[in-house]
Amino acid sequence: MTDAGESSVLGAGLSRAARVVWAKHDRDGEGWLPLWRHMEDSAAVAGLLWDRWLPSSVQSLVAEVLPQGVSDARILAVWLAAVHDIGKATPAFACQVDSLADLMRDEGLEMKTRRQFGPDRKLAPHGLAGQALLTEWLEESHGWTGRQAAQFGVVVGGHHGVPPDHHQLKDLYDRPDLLRTPGPSEPAWRGVQEALLSACADAFGVTGRLGEWRAVRLPQPVQVLLSALVIVSDWIASNPELFPYFPQAAAQTGPARVAAAWRGLQLPPPWKAGEPADDVTGLFLSRFDLPEGAVVRPVQEAVARLARAMPQPGLLVVEAPMGEGKTEAALAAAEILAARSGAGGVFFALPTMATGNAMFSRVVRWLKRLPVEEDARVSVQLAHSKAALNEAFAGLERASRQALRAVDADGGSEDFRPGVVRGDASAELVAHQWLRGRKKAMLSSFVAGTVDQLLFMGLKSRHLALRHLAIAGKVVVIDEAHAYDAFMNVYLDRVLSWLGAYRVPVVVLSATLPASRRKELAEAYAGAGAVGFGALAEQDAYPLVTAVAAGHGPVVDAPGASGREGCVELERLDDDLELLAERLEKELEGGGCVLVVRNTVKRVLATAQLLRDRLGDAHVTVAHSAFVDVDRAENDKALVDTFGPPEKSEGRRPTKHVVVASQVAEQSLDVDFDLLVSDLCPIDLLLQRMGRLHRHQRGVKESDRPERLRVARCLVTGADWSGPVPVPVRGSVAVYGAYALLRSAAVLVPHVEGERRPVRMPQDISVLVQSAYGQEPAWSGPWLGAIEAARLRHEAHRADQVERAGHFRLGEVGRVGRPLLGWVAAGVGDADDSRAGRAQVRDSRESLEVLVVQRRQDGSLVTLPWLGEGRGGLELAVDQVPSPRAAKAAAASGLRLPRQFSDPTVMDRAIAELEQFYVEAWQRKDSPWLAGQLILVLDGDCQCQLAGYALRYSRRDGLEVTRA
Question: What is the pTM of this model?
Fold first, then answer.
């Protein structure tokens, strides 16, 4: 054994017995790493992370609770990283490798063999053992109480992702032989443990601080952040490509070892925003691709002004109509709030992968316009399960690819700038290799992704502290807040309470938001004891911007809308396909573009079929969620290219066309139609759909539209209107519930009966939403019985949602000084953006996702034949790993099967049938696109049977499912 301890900060003062305690072992060779060296490595990494990677907002939060502020905070973080693996200096851990255990036995550290310990060894995982040893040392050597020590010790105990609970600690204390071998060698064990802890305290400047720290009460958010920093430090220091093992690396000095590792890691530093000048117009013109002559809108000006004027960065809730530039306002506010708070990045949360993909490109364009220091690099991530299929993100990944290995410093200099690559005046955007994967992606500075990534912050799961650290250092933007149901809001409200505790600036965007929900969001962020929020539930101004800063009452601003004002005439239409077809034939006599929005895919396909029979195939297209991923993305693009703003769709807009769509047409698509037909739906969603009607000016007084369609009109169908109370169709009730549909129908009465007053946009948006979601009017006659029965079912369903969401929801922020013991106990294990992960934070059954391929008549497998860019019809070899191009094309053909397959019995049968198709060559490590995926094989006619259902897929209509 080579002993390099004499030249080490820690090793020089340690006995030989302490220097042979091991921490790492190469199972495929003889390499190993002594504990003292891993302690030094981890401490050094923690120091570099603190100095060069951690946003100043996170540093400040830790620093403010310690007597000497930032200096204490850095010392504490480095020390906790140093001692995090002290639990490896125990018989329960050391016995695992016989050769290394024998070296320790030779120095008087006797221990049982692994077999002699048996399963009892699992009572002392090294994190838990480390917490026990550290707290014992603080109590016995420094006079701390158990509670004082526990709030520091739990950081060590939870460094593998789950803080211990009281029962685990009790079980360990009942088995002291797992910590030290009883008998003659017990003093030797105790001496080694105390020596390592004392050496760390001396080496990293803690010994002189422990007396004053004894009075410190660490808030739970600080405990979480320290835990996460230790986890990141440990992960980096445990990478043998960066920190090689002994004996090969035994001669390497600590500083040289760390410098080489950091240079090899090239971890981009946090974004450091400078506060923009007060010129709001200049800010928007310099950051965004605005058309010539554009002016900043009142909503945008109000958001920027409140972001500057808040006593301290906090929560902004922005409610404004579609087309008011809320996204640009949010990004401008993020820059201002980041400069004020010290946040090191932005997370933009969106309701779906499709909206996340679209926003990622917008964020990248914004980033390229931000002022940065020369040669700056910032890390960027698209955070959802299919991010690798997004070409914009994949391009960044390819450009950023690097090998993670230690790089020796020329001349041994320690003064270097990590990871600098010269670029142009804008920041170099990198999708950093180390910051990939479901647990680390959110640690990048700039992230666009699904809201699930944010909601996971409120889900008790392994390595939750890491997600908290990732989000605590950013400005968070939550888009389409109206799109989240009661189940998701249970998690969102808890997440907001933690974000408030971390003092994370948050911007919530919504086109339509019930006043009660606005109040709930503000109160959740403000935390317990917040007062003065009742008035938020009474605000009916629109647009509206609400600002909430910690310790202050809410401030509201009603800036007024700047977009075109308009009126939409509403009309009821009986739910009859023949009647609809006749009506559209008449409406389209002079041409025009119509959007028909149905609440279920089944109704979309049935409607499209009849309209094709009447109008011709060329005049009808469909858009819904039951397309494979690549087809759906092309559908969305085609919609915007064809029906988007005049300057983008010029020459492509058809003379006569009908798009039959599901809810995919509601969000984040800038499309403009002459006439709207919509199934009855909740009023806020109906208003979203109406936002696709006459969205852009087309000629003076809409003169470029067909004469018959120059007045904006919406035909509301999907219900039996013949009785005194409408009866929504069954499919709509299954999706939205009868209560929301009846409340929506009720507020529409003045607009569809009697004088049929048009809906004024945007003036009536807030009025309608508050009426549909606020206090119920005094119902009478038939409405009374219908609404009451629906309300009871609705309240029971909501109560069930809240109860089920609460099972794995993270607790509230605990009182100051309370240790994180049991913080994620009874949790869900790992949380990720898989179909099972999303089901944990959304009120949906677990869905079944497949990759769709086709089998030719000769038996060969190919990608779907119509895929563009040369990806269609590529052969998928079964005797070897398919070509990367073919495999990626198959992976891009992912499809989420519809609701029928979410039934547990049907799902089990479907999985069993799908697993009968198994290609061994596709399961290898060098087949990342296909390994572990369920494959749906269609025949030459793009049909198959699955779990008692007949499936047919076409590029035109997507997936159709009928009972076999």
Answer: 0.88
